Here is the input.
Amino acid sequence: MTCTVRAYTPSDETSWLRCRVLAFLDTAYYDSVVPAKPAIAAPGLELVAVDERGAVVGIMDTEVEGDLATTETVAIHPDHRRRGLAGELLASTRAWARDAGATTLDAWTRDDADTLAWYRAVGFAESDHYLHVYAFHYADPSEPGRAVVEAGAGLKPIQVFAHAPLAEEARLRAEFGRVHVCRRFAMAI
Here is the structure.
């Protein structure tokens, strides 16, 4: 099946959302569901790869601030993985970011083996790290209470998402069932 890389248009939104949900479903971002496409401020770049029917099967949204371009979303529909689409999106993004005056392209991701391998294989270098910690009542009813020292009046935490320093990893993994290392990958462009 032939795919085309092009600029995102507002009419792509429903297909963009479906692609993102399905792409994230088997990753550490499985619950990162959004009801609308997040806006990318100018001079950002929103690219999609579409199949012959016009369905979005790949996404790369990138923001620029000064000399730094940051990829906010990269996702490939599961039925279209390992066909080079992410590489095509990346090549277009790098050229655009360079023309926009950026000297570095970065992205943050969690600890999924295939994702980490892709970033490394295409030339990104890993640098900064911190933790994403989830405390979820349905996984362990005591987790949210351990994550929040004092809830607001009348509130009972059910789910907490928090950032923590990497130095706390062993302690937090012992306390909570879902802890991910969030990693920054960057490359010169």
User: Anything to note?
Assistant: Helices lie at 13-24, 85-99, 113-121, 143-147, 169-175. The longest strand covers residues 125-136.
